[in-house]
Amino acid sequence: MDAVQVVAEPRRREILRLVWDEERSAGEIADRFDVTFGAVSQHLRVLRDAGLVTLRQDGKKRFYRADREALGPLAAYLQSMWADRLDTLAELSEAAERAERGEGTDT
After folding, report:
1. What are residue 66's DSSP bridge partners?
2. CATH at residue 19
3. Which of 25, 31, 52, 95 is the most buried (most CB within 10 A)?
4. How many CB atoms are closer than 10 A to CB 64?
């Protein structure tokens, strides 16, 4: 499976986002999802087999981190996608605050 196919799956993109800037344990990653640990583990395996995350084992714990170099041009695309989502969230939050204060959106 190529990198584009791997990151096409929404949960795997979310996993990449979680491990983009910092290493996280498999349990910490799984806690962020509403599916079983086994399901998250399978997604982590796909990401690892594609070379998109690195794995470090410390005793029984497994720690994952995104391998940005392996993502190549997809890394910039993912970062811009996440930034766009954050911008949209900020805009929605600001609109909700204005609505609570009774301010209109007309200028």
Report:
1. 53
2. 1.10.10.10
3. 52
4. 23
